[in-house]
Amino acid sequence: MNIPIERGKVVTVARGQSTSVAGFSLSKGLGVVFRHWRRAWFEKQHQNVPATASESAPNAGNDKSKPTAFVTLEDMSKSYGTFTVEYPEQRIKLPEAYRNMPVLLYDDETGHELCTSCFQCQRICPPQVIHMTQAKDPASGKPVPSVAEFIIEYDACMSCGFCAEVCPFDAIKMDHEFELSTHDHPSLTVYKRDLNRPVSYYESIAPGFWAEARERAYKKLATNMKRRPGAIGIAPHLTEKITAAQAQAAQAAAAQAPAAKAPAKKAAAPRAADTAAAPTDKEAKLAAIRARNAAQKGGSAPAAGTAADAPLPTDKEAKLAAIRARNAAKKGGSTPAAETSAEESPPTDDKAARLAAIRARNAAKKGDATPSEESDQPAAETPPANDKAARLAAIRARNAAQKATEAAEQAADSATSTPEAPASSSEEGKPLDEKAARLAEIRARNAARKKGDQE
Amino acid sequence: MKAEGTMIKTEELQINIGPQHPSTHGVFRMLVTVDGETIVDLKPVFGYLHRNHEQIAEVNTYLQNMPYTDRLDYFNSMANNQAYAMAVEKLAEIEVPERAEYIRVIMVELTRILNHASALGFLINDMGAWQTPLAFGMREREKILDLFESTSGARLMCNYFRFGGVVRDLPPDFVPRLQSLLTGLPTFIDEFERMLRENEILRIRSEGIGVLPKEVAISYSVTGPVLRGSGIPYDIRKAEPYSIYDRFDFDVPIGTVGDVYDRFLVRIEEMRQSKRILEQALKQLPDAEGGHINPKARQNIRPPVGDAYTRIESPKGELGFYLVSDGGQTPYRYKVRAPSFINLTPLSDMCRGYKVADVVVILGSIDIVMGEVDR
Asked: N or C: which end of chain A has fewer CB within 10 A?
């Protein structure tokens, strides 16, 4: 057999002679073992175990609030012999690149998720365990660059890390958490609520990787946030907190515009129902009952019957409230704020009020199924007349005002009011209205162009 | 009875070793026909771990197959990745930057060391040296796995290679860590050899046991350390240098008899040669051009119609991937030439005439991984 070998040669391994004295080489081998035992005992190099290691509880792994004691072996190849890291109490620090299961990131400050549901990870996933649905704007029904639901089947995930590699928004990253064993098999199908991790968490486990991605990720997020109306795109467990923070800002703004402040501040759930019965007009009463029933069916209590007990002397105000309510309701189960306000309106405008009530009811029914309903429930359970409800109401009013421009055009047909109705809603509504109007214009133009293309 | 002589009349008996047996290195059954203690015939039965690997691969896209190749020979996921990546690169004509090639070679040679360290540990374990030599081998393996983990993110299922390079560059502390590992490596290899090579028990259990003659080895197309143990200097890194193996000086160790003892010695020597390659690669790495991946290489590829076969010298032998493309996103045909599977076929020839206890040792010396045998 002639195989030419360049740069190197063929070496025949020497078999050697067996020793004549039986047991000699056996004890030689045992000598090696003994030397190792001695060195492992006396020349250990991993003495730098932090003092907290002994203090930490045995279930330190499960208790995430406690800092975990890491064993840092500066150079493993220098430590002699085999040694044991006493695992639950001591841990070896995981390298930055370590990957276990994918998680989703959201921004700490704004609460916005980085994911835009571009379906890249779903497509590349080799065992096909990623599933997602895109969020839709409840008002227009158009897709929004945000994810409505995101499911990963952890039990079938093979931790290949392709999803994190392919994600153009740096929204999905590989977690370092590996203690996932459970008796509860269905819990390994993980939903968005449990997949969400703050960016600061990822930064803590992989600072180098995030430093690379940071700028790119935030730039893209800022663009996407502009296209997300309302609370869409905010991590579910943060929606309440973030909206409350926004509401505070809104309140501060509203303080400068007392006219708009009044309805927002006097929000109270039960009173809304009480006052709803008050209207004298037959039609309005009927509408009120219908609206109340719808609200009850909807499951979301009319926590923010904003305009319920507010003085609404003019048609203008009533109609405005109705529009706001409808829009708010459309936005996914957020309570029919002005259903009750419509009933308050004077009989002269009963047609519009009835219309608004029906619309609000329909929207509320539809809104049941929308995902942001969850975020409303806590608000509904809260006792009336507290700050939270007030703040929530303020946000809703503001959100409704954002949409008011579009609705104003429709309302103008059946109303005697002037087109500047939205302007009276609030000070801060103004610039947003302009924006919305511009957006509508652009959309209309695009739609027209599309039509032209098709023809 | 006495008329038949002093020999006790014995009957041939068929017994099963496995499929669930600690010495079968996985789910593997041997249907052994014995006459007393002597093996008359042996029939290897496998397929218990069959998981439709090749069929699945024809449904997946080219990139999606990469993590599946990790699961073939789960000791050497880096080598599997390289063979597959090379096949796709040949099919789609993707160029690999120089630096990426060096990173690949470093990873695969580390894989060879860890495979041999643990394979020898298991072989000694099969002979009855309970745990201590295995623990020594495993300790060395752990150090290498730590390097893999810091680079690729996983210890075993590395999924590190991509078409046109590797997924990410080496972490900054990789080279110093590898260097310190290499300084400690000769101590380990020398000690391991000193501890065992002259050991009387090991010699009795392995010398002249499981002899695989040259001709038989060639006719079964056995490759890797088993073939070299039989005295044939066939190493694909030399016979058909792929990647950048023509740039390194290293020797090809061969045995003379072809028994278990020769395979043991060949593996020890191969670890030394791998260490030589690693040292040269580390020296040449800073001068290598290009990044860790070809920036033009697309991962979601549709190779032109055609087929490609590439093979590498994996730690267990010739690992080949045969791919046929019909121009689509998924391979039309995907075939793995698994060294473990082919090295296992002459098992009955190697075992015939030896004792039942030797079967376990012979099987251990072939160094099989059932994930690769069954696919």
From this structure: C
Chain B residues inside the 8 Å CB shell of A33 = 132, 195
Residue A428 is encoded by which pair of tokens? Answer: 């801060």
Q: What is the pLDDT of residue A38?
A: 79
What is the distance between the alpha carbons of residues A265 and A248, in angstroms, rounded to a whole number?
12
Paired with B336 in beta bridges are: B321
Q: Residues of chain A with pLDDT > 90: what percent?
A: 1
Closest CA to B140 of B115, B175, B105, B103: B115
* Distance between CA atoms of residues A284 and A352, nearest Å: 10
Of the options 3.40.30.10, 3.20.20.70, 3.30.70.3270, 3.60.15.10, the CATH number for the domain spanning A102-226: 3.30.70.3270
Mark A58-72 as b/e (b = at least 16 C-beta within 10 Å): eebbeeeeeebbbbe
Give the start-to-end residue ranges of the domains of chain A.
34-92, 102-226, 258-454
Strands (E), B163-261: 165-166, 252-254
Q: How far is B1 from chain A (nearest CA, A)?
A: 41
Q: Chain B residues with CB inside 8 Å of A8's CB?
A: 238, 249-252
Over the stretch B329-358, which tens digit does the pLDDT of each residue have?
Answer: 899 989 999 898 999 888 888 888 888 888
Q: pTM here?
A: 0.68
Residue A421 DSSP class: G
Contact A163, A102 (CB under 8 A): yes
Test mutation, A2, A9, A12, A13, chain B, max B CBs within 10 A: A13
Distance CA A322, CA A312 (A): 12
A12: left (phi over 0), alpha (psi -120 to 50) or beta: beta
